[in-house]
Amino acid sequence: MKRNKLALTLAGLMLAPASAVFAQSTAPAQTSNPPPQDQAKQLQTITVTGSAIPRIDVETPSPVTVITATQISRSGLTTLSDVVRSISADNSGSIPNAFANGFAAGSSGVALRGLTVNSTLVLVDGHRLASYPVADDGERSFVDLNSIPLAAVERIEVLKDGASSLYGADAIAGVVNIIMRPSFKGVMGTVDLGTSQHGGGFTRKATLLAGGGDLDKDRYNAYMSVQYQKDNSIRTSQRGFPFNTGDLSSLGGPGLGGPAARNGGPNGAIRPNTPGSLWQPLMPCTTGPQITDDTGSYCRFDGVNKFGTLQPAMEQGGVSGRFTVKLNDTTKAYMDASFMEAKTWAPGGPRPIQTSTPNNTNNITLPVGNPSNPFAVPARISYNFGDIPSGFNYNNHAARIIGDVSGQVADWNYEAALVLNHSWLNTTQYGFISYTALLDAVAKGSYNFANPGSNSSAVRSALAPGYSKTSTSDMDTLDLSASRTLWDMAGGPMGIALGAQFRHEAQNDPTLNPNFEFQGLGNAQTKGSREVSGAYVEFDMPLLQQLEVDASGRFDHYTDAGNNFSPKVGFKYKPFDWVALRGTYSKGFRAPAFAENGSSSTQGFVTYTPPPAFQALHNGSPYVTIPYALSEFTTANKNIKPEKSKSFTFGVVFQPTSWLNASFDYYNIKKSNLIVQADTAAALANYYAGLPQPPGVTVTPDLPDPDHPNAQPRPSELIGSYLNAQQLKTTGMDVDLQAHFDFNNNIHYITELTGTQIFQWSLTLADGTKQSYVGTQGPYNLSSGAGTPRSRGSWANTLEYGPLTVTGTLYYTSGYREIAADVGVNGLFDGDCLTTTPAGTNFPASCKVGAFYDFDLTGSYMINDNFTVTASVMNLFDRKAPFDPANYAGAGANYNPTWSQAGVVGRFYNLGVKVKF
């Protein structure tokens, strides 16, 4: 990553964007001498992300970080998702591809400043994209990074500042602007193969980029890019302890538990439905030794080991192309089209007969006469349908087409662009048990629990018929912009930019569980559409040679969310040629997503363990000590208001020499009117204390504990609606350092360090309660429960020696406390860990999850002008992921895939070849 310094030699490649704009970066360079007149004239066509006015000095008042195609290649990262999510400012709410059991499985999203994926605006060439057809947690709309082709990317620009004054909604935390090549001549292809040292994850990738035509000579250029990548899955059974098991008893933690967790697969547990009876195996144990405790005997079965997936199998591919014509000396037009498809396979474990939602089957019994009931009385049964495979298949498609015209009329530079985006996601679930079919099978005895191998495929299909749906998302935009200089000021010409945007947005995500037919499956559905119109103006005022002030504002009208005005002002002051002070103040907003104000509802699950005091009331029975799925059901609110933000930044940029560039930027963001679900922490606390719930909130109790039927039941479902009820504040510091050195014998060395330190990340609830999350695993109810690490950073070092290039990159994410304020009486309310031992003590005892760092080594050797060999060893030192038993995104495998996926993949080898003509 480099600070946003433009090389003059690349300036002519820029095309003015439509609604807000982008910059180009290579080696850092600040000059105290004015550029030649012809060069200055060329630089006037350059615009920078976060500003709509062409400028010569591209260091704007806002901090912008650039990742070039060269840096992407040197990193060894092979997907756009991995590249963007490696940004140090990406934090709480980030969505990794490995989170294959979430609402938005099959996707990947970036969350700058930890403000979740719906507060970071992702653009391509300055234009908006359609959101992923399914919202994260059934609530947050975001752009899927897997839907953007990487093969034709020229650079990625990250504006780490509020930008609603130009871009409108969703740019509260910043903007990720992915810029495609404006033109290409020749043929370039790559082929790469990779595999993990520990097994699984074999990957193959190929890209092709071909184009021809010279805009100046031929008055046209056309190119096409094609890419394909397929990654095999990594199973939990292919890794070592503790990432391959759900049994942590050897560490003093939870074991495989009672009948609901131990029977698994084909081994069930059964007991007569009479007082004092004990559980006993439904059939002889074949999956492990028999376990006996005071409630009975069970067959040991580790479902995490047998069925868990650490990395889902994925297949991605697509094609994109651009045709550009030069109509005259001042006018260009281009058409750009792309199609991407991403498939994800996410198999799961066998579905249990006991679930709490949508119908409670925890006390289901086999009647007398059922072939699987050997008793003369009805019998309770605990069972997992091990003979019926379960899971999800996702197939997402993203189609996009742009028509763009830019030119000059009189003293105005103008651009007009029509952008059409359409995404559709095919989702198929299989293996989930139909409630009505289950009751019928139990009553009629059609399914043999004692000998599942005798069940016919027709019987299994009747119990788990499967279901498919197609979800869609649309974003159609007309962007208009114009800019010019007005008059000379003391520091140079004053600039103005005007723009307008008209959008049509729509989303239709039908439920995957119609009529609540399937047990243990969430029931989210979203439908909505709206029209959006906006207009902005920006002034750039060089008041002095050393002082520049930039002011902008945008007005937006939403047919469903009303009006909003977002202003912004920034300054840059250069007391010396080698140092610059900069700062901004802005207001932003996020319009409610269709999941929050449309015809929508969401049912999701979090892994939950009741607090120790509640466990004591049940004498530590498995009913309360084994983590279970707590349902959260939320309905849309048509009266919900947009989220608002106020933010400011202040930074300093140093370049005391030509080989060193450094910047330090402080940020402070306050969000109000936060759109949130019902306060689960307060709801659970009220439930345990026997207090009434606030209006609109309901806690549904589970069926009684079979071993302690008179004790208070555990909660099974929380029901509420979205509301504007909280405020959020986060502060922190970004650091960017870059230095480059030239030595004898044609040796060139580059070192680049980027890092983000969060000082504060806290919520203020409606009642004034303040919850701090920085350095903890909260917000736990957010997305994958990944937490808010205090520090993230990377340090890349590149050595170039003739045809040889070697890069080593160190990535670091700090550890965190395994607590979360939003999980009620756990977390900060009493200092307890999110996971506990069977005795109710903290697990792990330190209540901490360690930091994770790994080192990637990549290299390339140019055999000649046409052939280059590439190789990399990712996670060179084979660092293991920190132990995290509370995270629920990692297939129950006791690690956090958001921050430490490389730690379960392990040492990974890649070998490739690049051909260019």
TrEMBL record:
Compartment list: Cell outer membrane
Domain TonB-dependent receptor plug, first and last residues per copy: 59-175
Signal peptide per UniProt: 1-23
Domain TonB-dependent receptor-like beta-barrel, first and last residues per copy: 356-876
PROSITE patterns (alphabetical): TONB_DEPENDENT_REC_3
Record's keyword terms, sorted: Cell outer membrane, Membrane, Receptor, Signal, TonB box, Transmembrane, Transmembrane beta strand, Transport
Keyword presence, Transport: yes
Record InterPro entries: Beta-barrel_TonB (IPR000531), Beta-barrel_TonB_sf (IPR036942), Plug_dom (IPR012910), Plug_dom_sf (IPR037066), TonB-dep_rcpt-like (IPR039426)
Membrane topology: Multi-pass membrane protein
Pfam families: Plug, TonB_dep_Rec_b-barrel
Similarity annotation: Belongs to the TonB-dependent receptor family.
Record's protein name: TonB-dependent receptor
UniProt source species: Dyella koreensis
